[in-house]
């Protein structure tokens, strides 16, 4: 099969390749490749029309396992590190300063990556940023709204984690799946399958059970923590997360721009808006005690995790399908719970285990692609009785669909037995 260039003309034939112009009249390239003579002389003696991609499969699977590990570690470690830093004895740092520092580091990192993409040419970088940020100012201003919401969300996370156990926050924060789905239906006119609606109901039920356990005093908590404030903060954070994600997708559909440019623009707005929030909420205290008051190695770990962890996830998330993301979320909940028992003396009672289990199951069911959901529905329907459809006489049977489809979004990279353990 001849390769076709961008202009539509076949590429120059290499050694052993057959050009379409050398065929006899009435003979096609496909016909030549599939003749009986090809099989008789031996397949190994002729170039195969399709490249062998079997060697690429292990590498692709390794990338998925790496992305799974990154997603799990980043999701769990950020929550645990914030909880640890906020509950340490001694002077407590200002959360608004940590949000600003994370945005500054994120913006500087993206600027350095763009500088590397321009091969260290300062002039090219300046011209590129002038064109992308100033000339195309409409696209830049579009990012002001999601940046404002993300800044608010980051501050709300500190409030929520300061007042809720890490495991409880991790479970409750999955309400962002529900808010994102609702905003997708309202703003993007998307439709959800019945399985997805059922999983959202299951998710809400699981979160309600966990919050009922928290309100009932299932585990001891310090006197300076208010579960009601924590719940209000995490619900507001979920609402802002869902709206910002859907709005971000809507305004940037069809627009060009690398992930580093978009994160740089978000970092610029996030830094400015974070400073405004710092001045409004804790301006007097910060001016009196200093910007870096209460900063310890643990606090710097939180800032670095929030700045670089998000960028790392942005890199590896393209290798993760929906099932992988859902599986990573479930593992993060389990890891956060186990670590909370070890680090913070968290007590897991049957009510929390039930609610967390419902949330994990709901996340997995919601992450199933539509193809898998239809397969589950058809499998359950087939158990009710045999199919009564019969092929009319004289007609060939319909072709059987292969179970190895090329669409990677409809098949998990992990075996089913591993996912449901």
UniProtKB/TrEMBL annotation:
* Main subcellular location: Golgi
Q: Which UniProt keywords apply?
A: Membrane, Sugar transport, Transmembrane, Transmembrane helix, Transport
Q: Where is the composition biased (Low complexity)?
A: 9-21
Pfam families in UniProt: Nuc_sug_transp
Q: Does the entry feature the keyword Transmembrane, yes or no?
A: yes
GO MF entry, a single one: pyrimidine nucleotide-sugar transmembrane transporter activity
Q: Does the keyword Transmembrane helix apply?
A: yes
- According to the record, the segments passing through the membrane are 65-86, 92-115, 197-216, 228-248, 260-280, 292-317, 324-345, 351-368
The annotated topology with respect to the bilayer is: Multi-pass membrane protein
- What are the GO cellular component annotations? endoplasmic reticulum; Golgi membrane; nucleoplasm
Q: Where is this region: Disordered?
A: 1-24, 382-421
The record's listing under InterPro entries reads: EmrE-like, Nuc_sug_transpt
Biological processes annotated in GO: UDP-galactose transmembrane transport
Q: Where in the cell is it found?
A: Golgi apparatus membrane
SUPFAM superfamilies per the UniProt record, alphabetical: Multidrug resistance efflux transporter EmrE
Q: What is stated as this protein's family in its record?
A: Belongs to the nucleotide-sugar transporter family. SLC35A subfamily.
Question: What name has this protein been given in UniProt?
Answer: Solute carrier family 35 member A2
Q: Which organism is it from?
A: Monodon monoceros (Narwhal)
